[in-house]
Amino acid sequence: MKRFGYWRDPLFVACCALYVLNRWVIKPHVHCAFLHGQFNDLLLVPCALPLVLWLQRRLGLRPSNAMPAWGEIGFHVVVWSVLFEVIGPHLMRVTGDPLDALAYVAGGIMAGIWWHIESRQPLPAR
Fold it and tell me: pTM, whole model, 2 decimals?
């Protein structure tokens, strides 16, 4: 079984780069509802989950360095959806948006498929 790279995971690195590119380069110059609304929400799971799982591993809450399981992805999508789209609007001046939660789900599914495929790749010869 292939080890999960956490902050060195290629999907994590690519999605963090896409977030930075969208946040500071594209959004100020392109007026597209998707780029301003849900694009960065699609990146939540591939950008945040590796760091959360790394922290859980360091704290002894995650038993292995395996690729994220579907259950781990789903659990965090549900927690983040409730936290950011249900509880958050009651604590801060933000609006809960079901489309954001849908974007978290879509990003989680895409990331899960990527990590599932990655976990089946043979290790490079040394």
Answer: 0.91
